Amino acid sequence: xxxxxxxxxxxxxxxxxxxxxxxxxxxxxxxxxxxxxxxxxxxxxxxxxxxxxxxxxxxxxxxxxxxxxxxxxxxxxxxxxxxxxxxxxxxxxxxxxxxxxxxxxxxxxxxxxxxxxxxxxxxxxxxxxxxxxxxxxxxxxxxxxxxxxxxxxxxxxxxxxxxxxxxxxxxxxxxxxxxxxxxxxxxxxxxxxxxxxxxxxxxxxxxxxxxxxxxxxxxxxxxxxxxxxxxxxxxxxxxxxxxxxxxxxxxxxxxxxxxxxxxxxxxxxxxxxxxxxxxxxxxxxxxxxxxxxxxxxxxxxxxxxxxxxxxxxxxxxxxxxxxxxxxxxxxxxxxxxxxxxxxxxxxxxxxxxxxxxxxxxxxxxxxxxxxxxxxxxxxxxxxxxxxxxxxx
Length: 392
Ligand code: PSV
Ligand code: MN
Hints:
Elements lengths: L8 H9 L3 E3 L22 H15 L4 E5 L8 H10 L3 E6 L18 H21 L3 E4 L4 E2 L7 H17 L6 E5 L9 E2 L4 H11 L3 E6 L9 H10 L3 E6 L16 H13 L10 E4 L8 H21 L2 H9 L3 H12 L4 H10 L6 H8 L1 H8 L11
Parallel strand pairs: 1-2, 2-3, 3-4, 4-6, 6-8, 8-9, 9-10
Antiparallel strand pairs: 5-7
Helix pairs in contact: 2-9, 2-13, 4-5, 7-8, 8-9, 9-13, 10-11
The site of alpha-D-psicofuranose (PSV) has 9 residues, from loops.
């Protein structure tokens, strides 16, 4: 049985104050290219998506921001959406640009061989900065689907130059408090070559841009077997880890609930975060989810995900840093490994339940939400209209 007394004051404060940002698109219907299953009560617009996200925050007390995707979440008056969020006790988080769903982008966006398409992609990002000004967001998240399907299709090197040029134009339009957070992904939708395939490429572009550009690490965007915590450690070392897109994967970019496929990996990642002192809100690392709930209920899926991150974090905070360092210094391989495994194998659920009760929350957010009747209410109320899907 764990309880809060096992954490020192600092660790306890870090865990209490930890926040996780939710993606608006997780509340819409999603699926595979084979089938998208709808569910009763699915939001029909960004206002309803935010209302659902606010439920996750109300029950976990740890998810006070919602990332938007533009144009999926564009409404006539973005300040009205911002007010709506505020009334429900959440804020708008990162603004995700979208330069992958127009026909013009078939051969890429910022890397497209056609200068007019590149200009259009830059203009979209500049428009996203206006959305950020209206919503109070400070992170512009860029993920590009740019890449090639066939060798020789375009000039690999020229595409990097175009990319650098386009990013520099966007960067020049940032306000002082804004950041570009630049995501990488090793494949999909392009299969031969992707223009920002890895953390090294993202980092090179961020370093060329300046201090307001940081790397986003999406846990589903690596080849199987990649040591993700190494990348986390490396980016933290040089102060360029801007954000996570948390999710889990068994095969490709599965976008399943974080901590579902490999909770041990999530713990190892959070251990590097704790080790680098990067958990605090002012560390500059934005802990976001980027997930889809294809077959499970969406709000409970998000609640479970937040709880999974909290559990991995609590375990990481339980690592006996002094004992670990002593064992490492002594070259005691087995003792060092045992220190880590002791923390990982601890059941932190009672500790987290206690922490929630101290905050005035239900100890089991999942159960409390399911008993609240919210799912039945939205199923009754949200009748008619088109349910939002991944992409609208
Ligand atoms: C791309 O696969 C990605 O991870 C990017 O973050 C996109 O913005 C997001 O998915 C859309 O779901
Ligand atoms: Mn992502």
